[in-house]
Amino acid sequence: MIPNLPQSKSVPSNLATGRRHRVSISGSGSYQSHLSSLGHLHRVRTTSEQISLGPVDESDNDYYLHVLEGGLVEQRPRVGRLSLLKQFITDPATFLSDDLRRMRSGHVWRPHVLVTLYSCLCILFLTIKIHTFVWNAHQTTRPQHDPSWQPILNLAETDIWHSASFLNITLSQRLSVAFRGLPAQAHLETFVVQAHPGSGYKSDLTACLWIEDARIEEALLSATAWPGPVSLVIVTPHTPNSAAYKTLLDYLTAKHASTNLSVHVLHVSSVAGGSSNAYINMARFFARTSRVVLFPDGIPRSARSSHNTHWLDKLSVDTPHPVLLSNTTSKAFSPRLLAPVVLPRDHPVWCTERCYMFGSRLLDWEDCLWRLWLESAGEASSIAVPHLWNGFKNATSPLVSPFAIKIRLRWSAKYRSEACAFTLKRSQAFESLSKTEKRHMQWRKKFCRETVGPGALDMP
């Protein structure tokens, strides 16, 4: 049994009154008292430092009791929140260890300091993000500070072609937005040769095509005979700083005498392994009229003859849908090999650049026409141009091997199946469809089953 001990004079009077405190106080000399509360056992001994503290009035908010290591207590002045925040920033180790001792001794922790610090960090992070966003927006809207920037066209406002949105971004940004299939090391020289604006064209239809650098003579010959503008992309493996590349540019600027030809030179590491559809998309992208005709393998000789260009008169000027130049007039999908297509330059569908590893103009172009037909939902058509087929080649550059052909055809089938499934999902996303939209959806289902197979609409 614990005897009744006299009150020690070394303990402050406000701690010996019997009122509840967050710390426990011991007696003096060889006596020890133990206080157990809520599972916590505290041992506090008195020292000469405590004797010097004197009584502390609990109503005084300028001081508080601080627990030291070993159960000692001392009187400390209270500090403001800014001072605590300053202490945390200047000496975080001491600040955190101090709080941990307070928590072990039953004192209330100071969460408001960490909340304030967390708020400051959030404000700092948000400020950095806003600054980065504003800086990027500023760089995009002020491309003239970029030494590599050059305008797409140097045309007057009265010219037939103008695109302010693309004039305000750099060339590298245009490439990344428009041609995602191009490799990072690709280099494009736009308008190495530029058509003269205001020329008296017989047709407002821009011929878009691409060739390898070994076929320059043929392309220039076909361009001079075309009745309208020509957008030509020349693909070369020569690096921009090489002598062969400079010779190519000099040849184009020196030999070119046509007023309707615009030439763009693209450097790639391998011409054979590139995307044919990406190159023809590029030629379409830089076209200068509202309507274009895409030639996947160059302009045939029959189309260059002046007496065979009467087929241009058959084209409707206001049609917003693709028109295939075939050997029959029909709305069924039965295109000839490498058949050209006429469409608006700003048509929402562009040739797919997905299957590009084998460098086949023929197979790439078939996928392009198939996607145009799918998205048109039965509105696309074809017109008969018999004389146009006399100049087409029967064969293009072959693929590597029959095994590569087999893989390429599997890729094409996979691409078409996914395109059909995606089209069906897109139609089902709408809560209500109009009669026209329902008719288009039914036509696409039928088209996918006929051209791909019964399982074309299966969800992947």
Task: Supply database-style keywords.
elongated; alpha/beta; about 450 residues; 3 domains; two-stranded antiparallel sheet; 8-stranded mixed beta sheet; 12 strands; about 35% helix; Spore Coat Polysaccharide Biosynthesis Protein SpsA, Chain A
Q: In order across it, which strands form the biggest sheet?
A: 5-8-7-6-9-11-10-12
CATH C-level of the largest domain:
Alpha Beta
Mean of pLDDT: 69
* Number of individual domains: 3
- Class by SSE composition: alpha/beta
Helix content: 25-40%
**What is the molecular shape?**
elongated
| Tally of helical segments | 13
How would you describe this structure to a colleague?
Residues 1-16 have a biased composition (Polar residues). Residues 1-31 are annotated as: Disordered. The longest helix is centred in the first third of the chain and has 31 residues, at 111-141. This protein has 3 domains: 1-78, no CATH class; 143-398, Spore Coat Polysaccharide Biosynthesis Protein SpsA, Chain A (Alpha-Beta Complex), CATH 3.90.550; 400-460. The protein has 13 helices and 12 strands. The protein is α/β, with parallel strands linked by helices and 460 residues long. It is elongated and about 105 Å long. β3 (63-67) and β4 form a beta hairpin. Mean pLDDT is 69; it is low at 4-60 and 140-164.
